[in-house]
Design goal:
CATH architecture of the largest domain: Orthogonal Bundle
CATH class of the largest domain: Mainly Alpha
Distance between the termini: 42 Å
Number of strands: 0
Order of helices and strands: HHHHHHHHHH
Oligomer: single chain
Radius of gyration: 18 Å
Number of domains: 2
Structural class: mainly alpha
């Protein structure tokens, strides 16, 4: 949260934060409802254990409640909350001594240069018959790749906001997303029998 946020704040964010800070009835509950999917998707994709993800999601919103007075309106509230969720999930992985980035995530990119990036994750995900296979393929990605795919494709978070949330350079975010999509493509092509 020390890095400045990238996305512009939304005017509704200011009203919501002010309502929570003024302890308006139901204000914090509305904030939670509005952002719970973002937090759940990020945390669960990183830790992959339902009970731990539920506990960590609660921890995220507890931290949001405790630190909301520090929100500077220099970004969207969702970006700020996403930064907190990423930080808490990352610390969980560190405590469990689980790698955020797997060794093969930083592998030589030479093979990647020969593969096109024309795989359309949204089309594959829209096909009901592939949903289970897409989910299984995403679950096999490293925690950072799962998180980036979730933020970019499911939450439709911009690359700049993902970089702010994860404190990774935008180029690194693009690289991890490319590699994650490649792995997903290979897994899904293998499943449906279409080999490149």
């Amino acid at each position: 949260m020390s890095e400045p946020c990238i996305s512009p704040p939304m005017k509704d964010d200011r009203a919501m934060v002010q309502a929570v800070l003024e302890r308006a009835p139901g204000a914090f509950e509305r904030l939670v409802v509005q952002h719970k999917n973002l937090v759940w998707h990020m945390v669960y994709r990183m830790v992959q254990h339902r009970d731990d993800a539920e506990e960590l999601s609660q921890e995220v919103f507890l931290r949001v409640h405790q630190k909301l007075h520090q929100f500077r309106y220099d970004c969207a509230l969702s970006t700020w909350i996403g930064t907190i969720a990423f930080s808490i999930a990352t610390r969980y992985l560190q405590r469990k001594r689980l790698p955020l980035i797997e060794d093969n995530d930083d592998a030589d990119g030479s093979i990647l240069e020969r593969v096109g990036d024309d795989f359309d994750l949204e089309s594959a995900n829209a096909d009901r018959q592939l949903n289970a296979h897409v989910a299984a393929a995403i679950d096999k990605l490293s925690p950072i790749q799962r998180t980036l795919v979730t933020l970019y494709h499911l939450e439709e978070t911009s690359l700049l906001d993902i970089a702010a949330i994860t404190n990774l350079p935008e180029g690194t975010v693009k690289n991890y997303l490319f590699r994650a999509r490649l792995k997903l493509r290979q897994a899904l092509e293998k499943h449906i029998g279409e080999f490149a």
